[in-house]
Write the C-alpha coordinates for this entry.
Amino acid sequence: MSFAAPPVVEMNAVTKRYGTVEAVRGISLRIAPGEIVAMLGPNGAGKTTSVGLMLGLRTPTSGTVRLFGLPPTDRRARSRAGVMLQESGTTSVLTPREIVRLFGTYYPAPMPTERALALAGLTDKADARIGTLSGGQRQRLYLALAVCGDPDVLFLDEPTVGMDVEARRAFVTSIQTLAAAGKTVLFTTHYLREAEELARRIVVIDRGVVIADAAPRELMGRVAAKRVAFTVVGALPAGVFAGLPVAALASANGHVRFLTGEPESVLRALFARGVELRDLEVVGADLEEAFLSLTRREEPA
Amino acid sequence: MSAVAPVLPMLLAQTRSELVARWRVPAFSVTSLALPILFYTFFALPFARQTFPNGVSVGAYLLASFAAYAVGSVMVYGFGINVAIERAQKVDVLMRATPVPPGVVITAKVIGALVFSLLSVIVLIIYGVVVAGVRQDLTVWANVTARLLVGSLPFVSLGFAIGYSAGPNAAPALANIIYLPLSFASGLFMPVSQLPGFVQRMAPYLPSYHYGQLAWSAVGAPTEPIGVSLAWLAGYTALFLAIAVRAYRREETRKFG
Protein backbone atom coordinates (compact mmCIF):
# COMPACT_ATOMS: atom_id res chain seq x y z
CA MET A 1 0.00 0.00 0.00
CA SER A 2 1.42 3.36 -1.01
CA PHE A 3 1.42 6.41 1.23
CA ALA A 4 -0.90 8.24 -1.11
CA ALA A 5 -3.70 5.70 -1.00
CA PRO A 6 -5.75 5.67 2.19
CA PRO A 7 -7.12 2.31 3.34
CA VAL A 8 -10.26 1.29 1.49
CA VAL A 9 -12.05 0.80 4.78
CA GLU A 10 -11.04 2.11 8.14
CA MET A 11 -13.09 1.48 11.26
CA ASN A 12 -11.86 2.91 14.54
CA ALA A 13 -13.36 1.63 17.79
CA VAL A 14 -16.81 1.53 16.21
CA THR A 15 -19.85 0.61 18.24
CA LYS A 16 -23.46 0.40 17.15
CA ARG A 17 -26.39 0.12 19.49
CA TYR A 18 -30.02 -0.47 18.48
CA GLY A 19 -32.05 0.45 21.53
CA THR A 20 -30.69 -1.87 24.19
CA VAL A 21 -28.99 -4.26 21.77
CA GLU A 22 -25.33 -3.65 21.10
CA ALA A 23 -24.81 -5.11 17.63
CA VAL A 24 -21.24 -3.92 17.25
CA ARG A 25 -19.14 -3.59 20.38
CA GLY A 26 -15.94 -1.89 19.38
CA ILE A 27 -14.60 -2.99 16.01
CA SER A 28 -11.39 -1.58 14.59
CA LEU A 29 -10.51 -2.73 11.12
CA ARG A 30 -8.39 -1.59 8.19
CA ILE A 31 -8.74 -3.02 4.72
CA ALA A 32 -6.03 -2.16 2.21
CA PRO A 33 -6.52 -1.87 -1.57
CA GLY A 34 -6.51 -5.26 -3.30
CA GLU A 35 -7.38 -7.32 -0.22
CA ILE A 36 -9.96 -10.10 -0.47
CA VAL A 37 -11.52 -10.26 2.96
CA ALA A 38 -14.15 -12.61 4.32
CA MET A 39 -16.10 -11.50 7.32
CA LEU A 40 -17.11 -14.70 9.01
CA GLY A 41 -19.49 -15.23 11.85
CA PRO A 42 -22.75 -16.84 12.91
CA ASN A 43 -26.11 -15.18 12.31
CA GLY A 44 -26.55 -12.15 14.52
CA ALA A 45 -22.80 -11.69 14.99
CA GLY A 46 -22.91 -8.14 13.65
CA LYS A 47 -21.70 -8.76 10.10
CA THR A 48 -24.54 -7.00 8.33
CA THR A 49 -24.41 -4.11 10.75
CA SER A 50 -20.66 -3.79 10.13
CA VAL A 51 -21.17 -3.69 6.36
CA GLY A 52 -23.97 -1.15 6.84
CA LEU A 53 -21.60 1.00 8.88
CA MET A 54 -18.87 0.78 6.22
CA LEU A 55 -21.36 1.94 3.58
CA GLY A 56 -22.87 4.71 5.65
CA LEU A 57 -26.26 2.98 5.69
CA ARG A 58 -25.95 3.02 9.46
CA THR A 59 -24.45 5.70 11.67
CA PRO A 60 -22.06 4.48 14.38
CA THR A 61 -23.06 5.07 17.99
CA SER A 62 -19.41 5.84 18.69
CA GLY A 63 -16.15 5.59 16.80
CA THR A 64 -15.40 6.58 13.20
CA VAL A 65 -15.76 4.89 9.82
CA ARG A 66 -13.93 5.98 6.65
CA LEU A 67 -14.32 4.72 3.11
CA PHE A 68 -11.34 5.70 0.93
CA GLY A 69 -10.50 8.22 3.66
CA LEU A 70 -13.90 9.90 3.30
CA PRO A 71 -17.14 9.67 5.25
CA PRO A 72 -18.94 6.64 3.73
CA THR A 73 -21.92 8.81 2.76
CA ASP A 74 -19.70 10.97 0.52
CA ARG A 75 -20.64 10.52 -3.15
CA ARG A 76 -16.95 10.35 -4.14
CA ALA A 77 -16.48 7.37 -1.81
CA ARG A 78 -19.75 5.71 -2.86
CA SER A 79 -18.80 6.13 -6.52
CA ARG A 80 -15.91 3.74 -5.95
CA ALA A 81 -17.93 1.06 -4.14
CA GLY A 82 -20.22 -1.65 -5.48
CA VAL A 83 -22.71 -3.16 -3.12
CA MET A 84 -24.69 -6.36 -2.82
CA LEU A 85 -26.92 -6.28 0.21
CA GLN A 86 -28.68 -9.10 1.94
CA GLU A 87 -31.87 -7.23 2.62
CA SER A 88 -32.63 -5.07 -0.33
CA GLY A 89 -34.73 -5.24 -3.43
CA THR A 90 -35.34 -3.70 -6.75
CA THR A 91 -38.30 -2.97 -8.95
CA SER A 92 -39.82 -6.13 -10.41
CA VAL A 93 -41.16 -4.71 -13.68
CA LEU A 94 -37.86 -3.73 -15.32
CA THR A 95 -35.44 -6.19 -16.93
CA PRO A 96 -31.89 -6.89 -15.70
CA ARG A 97 -30.48 -5.14 -18.78
CA GLU A 98 -32.57 -2.03 -18.11
CA ILE A 99 -31.72 -1.73 -14.45
CA VAL A 100 -28.02 -2.52 -14.92
CA ARG A 101 -27.87 0.20 -17.57
CA LEU A 102 -29.63 2.59 -15.16
CA PHE A 103 -27.28 1.80 -12.27
CA GLY A 104 -24.36 2.34 -14.62
CA THR A 105 -25.32 6.01 -14.93
CA TYR A 106 -24.82 6.41 -11.16
CA TYR A 107 -21.07 5.78 -11.54
CA PRO A 108 -18.40 7.92 -13.21
CA ALA A 109 -16.82 5.13 -15.30
CA PRO A 110 -19.24 2.21 -15.57
CA MET A 111 -18.41 -1.00 -17.39
CA PRO A 112 -20.48 -1.89 -20.47
CA THR A 113 -23.88 -3.30 -19.49
CA GLU A 114 -23.16 -6.50 -21.41
CA ARG A 115 -19.99 -7.12 -19.46
CA ALA A 116 -21.65 -6.61 -16.08
CA LEU A 117 -24.39 -9.05 -17.06
CA ALA A 118 -21.86 -11.58 -18.35
CA LEU A 119 -19.69 -11.28 -15.26
CA ALA A 120 -22.71 -12.13 -13.12
CA GLY A 121 -23.72 -14.98 -15.45
CA LEU A 122 -27.04 -13.37 -16.29
CA THR A 123 -26.75 -12.88 -20.05
CA ASP A 124 -29.52 -15.32 -20.96
CA LYS A 125 -31.95 -13.72 -18.52
CA ALA A 126 -31.01 -10.15 -19.45
CA ASP A 127 -34.38 -9.33 -21.00
CA ALA A 128 -36.71 -11.17 -18.64
CA ARG A 129 -38.81 -9.21 -16.16
CA ILE A 130 -37.01 -9.13 -12.83
CA GLY A 131 -40.18 -10.34 -11.15
CA THR A 132 -39.87 -13.67 -12.97
CA LEU A 133 -36.29 -14.43 -11.85
CA SER A 134 -35.54 -17.22 -9.37
CA GLY A 135 -33.86 -16.49 -6.06
CA GLY A 136 -30.45 -17.48 -7.41
CA GLN A 137 -30.89 -15.42 -10.58
CA ARG A 138 -31.90 -12.48 -8.46
CA GLN A 139 -28.68 -12.82 -6.48
CA ARG A 140 -26.79 -12.75 -9.78
CA LEU A 141 -28.67 -9.60 -10.72
CA TYR A 142 -27.55 -7.98 -7.47
CA LEU A 143 -24.00 -9.01 -8.29
CA ALA A 144 -24.35 -7.41 -11.73
CA LEU A 145 -25.62 -4.23 -10.07
CA ALA A 146 -22.68 -4.31 -7.67
CA VAL A 147 -20.07 -4.59 -10.43
CA CYS A 148 -21.71 -2.43 -13.13
CA GLY A 149 -20.04 0.75 -11.92
CA ASP A 150 -16.62 -0.91 -12.26
CA PRO A 151 -15.93 -0.05 -8.61
CA ASP A 152 -12.63 -0.33 -6.77
CA VAL A 153 -14.21 -2.16 -3.86
CA LEU A 154 -17.07 -4.61 -3.62
CA PHE A 155 -19.14 -5.14 -0.49
CA LEU A 156 -21.09 -8.37 -0.66
CA ASP A 157 -23.33 -9.26 2.26
CA GLU A 158 -24.06 -13.01 2.30
CA PRO A 159 -23.73 -13.16 -1.49
CA THR A 160 -24.29 -16.89 -1.92
CA VAL A 161 -27.47 -17.18 0.13
CA GLY A 162 -30.19 -18.59 -2.13
CA MET A 163 -27.75 -19.54 -4.89
CA ASP A 164 -27.87 -23.00 -6.37
CA VAL A 165 -24.66 -24.94 -7.01
CA GLU A 166 -24.26 -23.60 -10.52
CA ALA A 167 -24.87 -20.00 -9.52
CA ARG A 168 -22.45 -20.40 -6.64
CA ARG A 169 -19.74 -21.71 -8.93
CA ALA A 170 -20.32 -18.80 -11.33
CA PHE A 171 -20.15 -16.47 -8.37
CA VAL A 172 -16.82 -17.85 -7.17
CA THR A 173 -15.41 -17.46 -10.68
CA SER A 174 -16.57 -13.84 -10.92
CA ILE A 175 -15.04 -12.98 -7.56
CA GLN A 176 -11.76 -14.54 -8.66
CA THR A 177 -11.91 -12.53 -11.90
CA LEU A 178 -12.50 -9.33 -9.96
CA ALA A 179 -9.74 -10.13 -7.49
CA ALA A 180 -7.35 -10.78 -10.34
CA ALA A 181 -8.26 -7.35 -11.73
CA GLY A 182 -7.00 -5.81 -8.48
CA LYS A 183 -10.38 -5.07 -6.89
CA THR A 184 -10.81 -5.03 -3.16
CA VAL A 185 -13.53 -7.41 -2.06
CA LEU A 186 -15.19 -7.75 1.30
CA PHE A 187 -17.86 -10.39 1.71
CA THR A 188 -19.70 -11.82 4.67
CA THR A 189 -20.55 -15.45 5.13
CA HIS A 190 -21.31 -17.91 7.85
CA TYR A 191 -19.57 -20.73 6.01
CA LEU A 192 -15.94 -21.20 6.90
CA ARG A 193 -15.41 -23.23 3.74
CA GLU A 194 -16.57 -20.36 1.57
CA ALA A 195 -14.32 -17.91 3.39
CA GLU A 196 -11.38 -20.26 3.09
CA GLU A 197 -11.95 -20.83 -0.61
CA LEU A 198 -12.16 -17.20 -1.69
CA ALA A 199 -10.51 -14.95 0.86
CA ARG A 200 -6.92 -14.18 1.60
CA ARG A 201 -7.87 -12.78 4.95
CA ILE A 202 -10.62 -13.91 7.31
CA VAL A 203 -12.05 -11.64 9.96
CA VAL A 204 -14.10 -13.63 12.44
CA ILE A 205 -16.82 -11.69 14.20
CA ASP A 206 -18.90 -12.87 17.08
CA ARG A 207 -21.27 -10.93 19.24
CA GLY A 208 -20.13 -7.62 17.83
CA VAL A 209 -16.37 -8.00 18.24
CA VAL A 210 -13.54 -9.28 16.08
CA ILE A 211 -12.31 -12.50 17.66
CA ALA A 212 -9.81 -13.45 14.96
CA ASP A 213 -8.24 -11.74 11.97
CA ALA A 214 -5.79 -13.85 10.00
CA ALA A 215 -4.97 -15.58 6.75
CA PRO A 216 -7.10 -18.72 6.22
CA ARG A 217 -4.16 -21.11 6.74
CA GLU A 218 -3.11 -19.41 9.95
CA LEU A 219 -6.67 -19.36 11.19
CA MET A 220 -7.13 -23.05 10.48
CA GLY A 221 -3.99 -23.79 12.47
CA ARG A 222 -5.28 -21.81 15.38
CA VAL A 223 -8.77 -23.21 15.69
CA ALA A 224 -9.54 -26.31 17.64
CA ALA A 225 -9.09 -29.20 15.27
CA LYS A 226 -10.14 -32.17 17.44
CA ARG A 227 -13.31 -33.22 19.12
CA VAL A 228 -12.74 -35.11 22.37
CA ALA A 229 -15.41 -37.20 24.10
CA PHE A 230 -15.24 -39.53 27.12
CA THR A 231 -17.19 -40.85 30.06
CA VAL A 232 -15.92 -39.88 33.44
CA VAL A 233 -15.60 -42.43 36.25
CA GLY A 234 -17.01 -41.00 39.43
CA ALA A 235 -17.69 -37.28 39.81
CA LEU A 236 -15.99 -34.63 37.72
CA PRO A 237 -14.00 -32.41 40.12
CA ALA A 238 -15.20 -28.80 40.05
CA GLY A 239 -13.09 -26.42 38.01
CA VAL A 240 -11.10 -29.22 36.47
CA PHE A 241 -11.07 -27.48 33.07
CA ALA A 242 -9.81 -24.16 34.48
CA GLY A 243 -7.20 -22.64 32.20
CA LEU A 244 -7.33 -25.42 29.62
CA PRO A 245 -7.67 -24.59 25.87
CA VAL A 246 -11.07 -26.17 25.36
CA ALA A 247 -14.23 -24.93 23.70
CA ALA A 248 -17.85 -25.95 23.34
CA LEU A 249 -17.54 -27.91 26.56
CA ALA A 250 -20.59 -29.99 27.33
CA SER A 251 -21.03 -32.38 30.21
CA ALA A 252 -24.13 -34.36 31.16
CA ASN A 253 -24.62 -37.62 33.09
CA GLY A 254 -20.90 -38.24 33.13
CA HIS A 255 -20.55 -37.84 29.37
CA VAL A 256 -18.09 -35.07 28.57
CA ARG A 257 -17.29 -33.57 25.17
CA PHE A 258 -15.34 -30.55 24.00
CA LEU A 259 -13.27 -29.14 21.13
CA THR A 260 -9.57 -28.44 21.42
CA GLY A 261 -6.52 -27.81 19.29
CA GLU A 262 -4.27 -29.62 21.76
CA PRO A 263 -5.97 -32.83 22.86
CA GLU A 264 -2.76 -34.41 24.24
CA SER A 265 -1.91 -31.62 26.65
CA VAL A 266 -5.54 -31.22 27.73
CA LEU A 267 -5.81 -34.93 28.51
CA ARG A 268 -2.45 -34.90 30.28
CA ALA A 269 -3.70 -32.04 32.46
CA LEU A 270 -6.96 -33.82 33.20
CA PHE A 271 -5.12 -36.98 34.26
CA ALA A 272 -2.83 -34.88 36.43
CA ARG A 273 -5.91 -33.35 38.07
CA GLY A 274 -7.14 -36.81 39.00
CA VAL A 275 -9.84 -37.34 36.38
CA GLU A 276 -10.48 -41.00 35.65
CA LEU A 277 -12.10 -41.64 32.32
CA ARG A 278 -13.15 -44.39 29.92
CA ASP A 279 -14.54 -44.63 26.36
CA LEU A 280 -12.12 -41.95 25.23
CA GLU A 281 -12.66 -40.71 21.68
CA VAL A 282 -10.52 -38.17 19.85
CA VAL A 283 -11.65 -37.36 16.32
CA GLY A 284 -10.91 -34.61 13.85
CA ALA A 285 -13.49 -31.89 14.15
CA ASP A 286 -15.15 -30.75 10.93
CA LEU A 287 -14.78 -27.19 9.77
CA GLU A 288 -18.03 -26.00 11.26
CA GLU A 289 -17.11 -27.45 14.63
CA ALA A 290 -13.70 -25.85 14.40
CA PHE A 291 -15.31 -22.54 13.65
CA LEU A 292 -17.70 -23.03 16.53
CA SER A 293 -14.79 -23.50 18.88
CA LEU A 294 -13.44 -20.16 17.80
CA THR A 295 -16.64 -18.24 18.17
CA ARG A 296 -17.76 -19.79 21.41
CA ARG A 297 -14.50 -19.73 23.29
CA GLU A 298 -15.66 -17.05 25.69
CA GLU A 299 -18.86 -18.84 26.55
CA PRO A 300 -18.91 -19.88 30.19
CA ALA A 301 -18.84 -23.68 30.39
CA MET B 1 -11.82 10.76 -14.83
CA SER B 2 -14.23 12.72 -12.71
CA ALA B 3 -14.81 11.48 -9.17
CA VAL B 4 -18.57 11.35 -9.53
CA ALA B 5 -20.99 10.77 -12.39
CA PRO B 6 -22.75 13.77 -13.98
CA VAL B 7 -26.24 14.32 -12.61
CA LEU B 8 -28.16 15.13 -15.80
CA PRO B 9 -27.72 11.78 -17.65
CA MET B 10 -28.48 10.08 -14.32
CA LEU B 11 -31.72 12.06 -13.98
CA LEU B 12 -32.72 11.30 -17.57
CA ALA B 13 -32.06 7.57 -17.15
CA GLN B 14 -33.88 7.52 -13.80
CA THR B 15 -36.89 9.33 -15.26
CA ARG B 16 -36.97 6.99 -18.24
CA SER B 17 -36.91 3.94 -15.95
CA GLU B 18 -39.59 5.48 -13.79
CA LEU B 19 -41.86 5.97 -16.82
CA VAL B 20 -41.20 2.49 -18.22
CA ALA B 21 -41.84 0.92 -14.81
CA ARG B 22 -45.08 2.87 -14.33
CA TRP B 23 -46.25 2.02 -17.79
CA ARG B 24 -45.74 -1.70 -17.15
CA VAL B 25 -47.95 -1.73 -14.07
CA PRO B 26 -51.45 -1.82 -15.58
CA ALA B 27 -53.02 -1.29 -12.16
CA PHE B 28 -51.46 2.14 -12.36
CA SER B 29 -51.25 3.00 -16.04
CA VAL B 30 -54.69 1.73 -17.04
CA THR B 31 -56.44 3.19 -14.01
CA SER B 32 -54.87 6.59 -14.38
CA LEU B 33 -55.58 6.79 -18.08
CA ALA B 34 -58.90 4.96 -18.36
CA LEU B 35 -60.70 5.76 -15.13
CA PRO B 36 -61.13 9.52 -15.74
CA ILE B 37 -62.56 8.72 -19.19
CA LEU B 38 -64.90 6.14 -17.71
CA PHE B 39 -66.09 8.56 -15.03
CA TYR B 40 -66.52 11.32 -17.61
CA THR B 41 -68.65 8.97 -19.67
CA PHE B 42 -70.94 8.17 -16.71
CA PHE B 43 -71.18 11.56 -15.07
CA ALA B 44 -70.76 14.04 -17.92
CA LEU B 45 -71.52 12.60 -21.31
CA PRO B 46 -75.35 12.81 -21.01
CA PHE B 47 -75.13 16.56 -20.25
CA ALA B 48 -72.05 17.45 -22.23
CA ARG B 49 -73.83 19.54 -24.85
CA GLN B 50 -75.89 21.57 -22.36
CA THR B 51 -74.88 24.90 -20.90
CA PHE B 52 -75.21 26.31 -17.38
CA PRO B 53 -77.48 29.39 -16.95
CA ASN B 54 -74.29 31.51 -16.87
CA GLY B 55 -73.38 30.29 -20.38
CA VAL B 56 -70.57 27.95 -19.39
CA SER B 57 -70.56 24.63 -21.27
CA VAL B 58 -71.39 21.72 -18.96
CA GLY B 59 -69.18 19.44 -21.04
CA ALA B 60 -66.19 21.77 -20.71
CA TYR B 61 -66.81 22.37 -17.00
CA LEU B 62 -66.92 18.66 -16.23
CA LEU B 63 -63.95 18.02 -18.49
CA ALA B 64 -62.00 20.47 -16.34
CA SER B 65 -63.32 18.68 -13.22
CA PHE B 66 -62.23 15.25 -14.36
CA ALA B 67 -58.90 16.58 -15.57
CA ALA B 68 -58.35 17.78 -11.99
CA TYR B 69 -59.46 14.39 -10.70
CA ALA B 70 -57.05 12.67 -13.14
CA VAL B 71 -53.96 14.66 -12.18
CA GLY B 72 -54.71 14.37 -8.47
CA SER B 73 -55.19 10.63 -8.77
CA VAL B 74 -51.87 10.12 -10.63
CA MET B 75 -50.14 11.97 -7.79
CA VAL B 76 -51.95 10.39 -4.83
CA TYR B 77 -52.02 6.82 -6.15
CA GLY B 78 -48.72 7.03 -7.99
CA PHE B 79 -46.67 8.28 -5.09
CA GLY B 80 -48.73 6.68 -2.33
CA ILE B 81 -48.67 3.13 -3.65
CA ASN B 82 -45.31 3.28 -5.42
CA VAL B 83 -43.43 4.60 -2.38
CA ALA B 84 -45.11 2.10 -0.06
CA ILE B 85 -44.17 -0.81 -2.34
CA GLU B 86 -40.59 0.37 -2.77
CA ARG B 87 -40.22 0.70 0.99
CA ALA B 88 -41.56 -2.82 1.48
CA GLN B 89 -39.26 -4.28 -1.19
CA LYS B 90 -36.36 -2.34 0.32
CA VAL B 91 -35.58 -0.71 -3.00
CA ASP B 92 -34.68 2.35 -0.96
CA VAL B 93 -31.95 0.45 0.91
CA LEU B 94 -30.14 -0.55 -2.27
CA MET B 95 -30.50 2.92 -3.82
CA ARG B 96 -29.17 4.39 -0.61
CA ALA B 97 -25.95 2.40 -0.94
CA THR B 98 -25.30 3.66 -4.48
CA PRO B 99 -23.90 7.11 -5.31
CA VAL B 100 -27.21 8.34 -6.77
CA PRO B 101 -28.26 11.50 -4.90
CA PRO B 102 -31.72 11.06 -3.26
CA GLY B 103 -32.83 14.30 -4.95
CA VAL B 104 -32.34 12.68 -8.36
CA VAL B 105 -34.59 9.76 -7.44
CA ILE B 106 -37.35 12.00 -6.09
CA THR B 107 -37.11 14.46 -8.99
CA ALA B 108 -37.36 11.58 -11.47
CA LYS B 109 -40.49 10.36 -9.69
CA VAL B 110 -42.05 13.82 -9.83
CA ILE B 111 -41.18 14.28 -13.52
CA GLY B 112 -42.50 10.80 -14.27
CA ALA B 113 -45.76 11.61 -12.47
CA LEU B 114 -46.07 14.94 -14.30
CA VAL B 115 -45.59 13.21 -17.66
CA PHE B 116 -48.24 10.63 -16.73
CA SER B 117 -50.60 13.38 -15.57
CA LEU B 118 -50.06 15.25 -18.80
CA LEU B 119 -50.78 12.09 -20.76
CA SER B 120 -53.99 11.35 -18.85
CA VAL B 121 -55.24 14.95 -19.23
CA ILE B 122 -54.48 14.98 -22.96
CA VAL B 123 -56.25 11.66 -23.51
CA LEU B 124 -59.25 12.87 -21.50
CA ILE B 125 -59.49 16.19 -23.36
CA ILE B 126 -59.25 14.49 -26.74
CA TYR B 127 -62.06 12.17 -25.62
CA GLY B 128 -64.13 15.17 -24.52
CA VAL B 129 -63.59 17.01 -27.78
CA VAL B 130 -64.05 14.05 -30.10
CA VAL B 131 -66.74 12.01 -28.34
CA ALA B 132 -68.63 14.58 -26.28
CA GLY B 133 -68.26 17.37 -28.84
CA VAL B 134 -66.96 19.89 -26.32
CA ARG B 135 -65.70 23.00 -28.12
CA GLN B 136 -63.12 25.32 -26.56
CA ASP B 137 -60.00 27.11 -27.76
CA LEU B 138 -56.81 25.11 -27.59
CA THR B 139 -55.38 27.84 -25.34
CA VAL B 140 -58.14 27.10 -22.81
CA TRP B 141 -57.08 23.46 -22.59
CA ALA B 142 -53.42 24.43 -22.42
CA ASN B 143 -54.32 26.75 -19.55
CA VAL B 144 -56.32 24.04 -17.73
CA THR B 145 -53.45 21.57 -18.10
CA ALA B 146 -50.73 23.99 -17.01
CA ARG B 147 -52.69 25.12 -13.94
CA LEU B 148 -53.47 21.57 -12.88
CA LEU B 149 -49.85 20.43 -13.21
CA VAL B 150 -48.50 23.41 -11.27
CA GLY B 151 -51.21 23.19 -8.62
CA SER B 152 -50.75 19.45 -8.03
CA LEU B 153 -48.20 19.89 -5.24
CA PRO B 154 -50.65 19.17 -2.38
CA PHE B 155 -51.47 15.82 -4.00
CA VAL B 156 -47.80 14.98 -4.53
CA SER B 157 -47.35 15.67 -0.81
CA LEU B 158 -50.43 13.65 0.10
CA GLY B 159 -49.05 10.77 -1.98
CA PHE B 160 -45.73 10.88 -0.16
CA ALA B 161 -47.53 11.10 3.19
CA ILE B 162 -49.49 7.93 2.37
CA GLY B 163 -46.45 6.17 0.89
CA TYR B 164 -44.31 6.76 3.95
CA SER B 165 -47.04 6.06 6.52
CA ALA B 166 -48.68 2.94 5.12
CA GLY B 167 -47.52 -0.52 4.10
CA PRO B 168 -47.90 -1.85 0.56
CA ASN B 169 -51.27 -3.47 1.32
CA ALA B 170 -52.75 -0.57 3.26
CA ALA B 171 -51.58 2.16 0.87
CA PRO B 172 -54.05 1.50 -1.99
CA ALA B 173 -56.95 1.30 0.47
CA LEU B 174 -55.82 4.45 2.26
CA ALA B 175 -55.39 6.31 -1.04
CA ASN B 176 -58.91 5.29 -2.13
CA ILE B 177 -60.57 6.11 1.15
CA ILE B 178 -59.00 9.55 1.20
CA TYR B 179 -58.99 10.53 -2.44
CA LEU B 180 -62.36 9.32 -3.73
CA PRO B 181 -64.58 10.98 -1.08
CA LEU B 182 -62.37 14.06 -1.29
CA SER B 183 -62.94 14.32 -5.05
CA PHE B 184 -66.65 13.70 -4.74
CA ALA B 185 -67.19 16.20 -1.94
CA SER B 186 -65.19 18.84 -3.79
CA GLY B 187 -67.44 18.74 -6.83
CA LEU B 188 -65.05 16.99 -9.18
CA PHE B 189 -67.62 14.33 -10.14
CA MET B 190 -70.63 16.66 -10.29
CA PRO B 191 -70.88 20.39 -9.64
CA VAL B 192 -70.85 21.38 -5.97
CA SER B 193 -74.31 22.96 -6.35
CA GLN B 194 -75.78 19.49 -7.00
CA LEU B 195 -74.28 17.90 -3.88
CA PRO B 196 -76.17 17.37 -0.60
CA GLY B 197 -76.29 20.46 1.64
CA PHE B 198 -73.83 19.30 4.30
CA VAL B 199 -71.32 18.33 1.61
CA GLN B 200 -71.72 21.76 0.01
CA ARG B 201 -70.89 23.39 3.33
CA MET B 202 -67.84 21.16 3.75
CA ALA B 203 -66.46 21.57 0.23
CA PRO B 204 -64.77 24.98 0.65
CA TYR B 205 -62.44 23.48 3.26
CA LEU B 206 -61.15 20.69 1.03
CA PRO B 207 -57.96 20.84 -1.07
CA SER B 208 -59.51 19.36 -4.22
CA TYR B 209 -62.28 22.00 -4.12
CA HIS B 210 -59.67 24.74 -4.45
CA TYR B 211 -57.74 22.65 -6.94
CA GLY B 212 -60.92 22.35 -9.04
CA GLN B 213 -61.28 26.13 -8.95
CA LEU B 214 -58.02 26.46 -10.90
CA ALA B 215 -59.51 24.40 -13.73
CA TRP B 216 -63.05 25.78 -13.58
CA SER B 217 -61.94 29.39 -13.84
CA ALA B 218 -59.87 28.45 -16.90
CA VAL B 219 -63.05 27.34 -18.74
CA GLY B 220 -64.84 30.55 -17.76
CA ALA B 221 -66.87 29.49 -14.70
CA PRO B 222 -67.16 32.08 -11.92
CA THR B 223 -64.91 31.08 -9.03
CA GLU B 224 -63.03 32.44 -6.05
CA PRO B 225 -59.99 34.67 -6.79
CA ILE B 226 -57.04 32.55 -7.92
CA GLY B 227 -54.94 33.89 -5.03
CA VAL B 228 -57.37 32.33 -2.56
CA SER B 229 -57.16 28.94 -4.32
CA LEU B 230 -53.38 29.06 -4.34
CA ALA B 231 -53.25 30.00 -0.65
CA TRP B 232 -55.45 27.01 0.28
CA LEU B 233 -53.37 24.70 -1.89
CA ALA B 234 -50.14 26.01 -0.35
CA GLY B 235 -51.58 25.45 3.12
CA TYR B 236 -52.56 21.86 2.33
CA THR B 237 -49.15 21.25 0.73
CA ALA B 238 -47.50 22.35 3.97
CA LEU B 239 -49.79 20.13 6.05
CA PHE B 240 -49.32 16.98 3.93
CA LEU B 241 -45.62 17.63 3.56
CA ALA B 242 -45.28 17.89 7.35
CA ILE B 243 -47.03 14.51 7.71
CA ALA B 244 -44.84 13.02 4.97
CA VAL B 245 -41.61 14.35 6.49
CA ARG B 246 -42.58 13.08 9.92
CA ALA B 247 -43.27 9.59 8.59
CA TYR B 248 -40.11 9.71 6.49
CA ARG B 249 -37.98 10.65 9.50
CA ARG B 250 -39.45 7.88 11.60
CA GLU B 251 -38.61 5.38 8.88
CA GLU B 252 -35.17 6.92 8.49
CA THR B 253 -34.35 6.37 12.15
CA ARG B 254 -35.59 2.81 12.07
CA LYS B 255 -33.95 1.73 8.82
CA PHE B 256 -30.83 3.85 8.67
CA GLY B 257 -30.27 5.09 12.25
Remarks:
- The interface with chain B takes residues 18, 55, 57-59, 75-76, 78-79, 81, 83, 85, 87-94, 98-99, 101-103, 105-110, 129, 142, 145, 149, 155 of chain A (CB under 8 Å).
- The radius of gyration of chain A is 23 Å.
